[in-house]
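FAQ: What does the model actually see?

It sees only this:
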Amino acid sequence: MEEYTVKIKALTPLWTGDAERKSNKIRETGIIGSLRWWYEALIRGLGGNACDPTNSKCEGRNHCDACELFGCTGWS
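And it is asked to produce this:
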């Protein structure tokens, strides 16, 4: 697998707070989740397929494009 380095610059303030609305540190899982959400939105907007996050499995082929990039449960 080829490895890539990606630099991301925030154009607006980042908020990765917890359930109690505290943002005392950057939460990597929040950033990755936001990136995945926007990636899925782009895929769907361009006519592609992104799995339903409320379903435990991707429909059709083995994994949708978002799962290929970000991974998914049960895929090793």
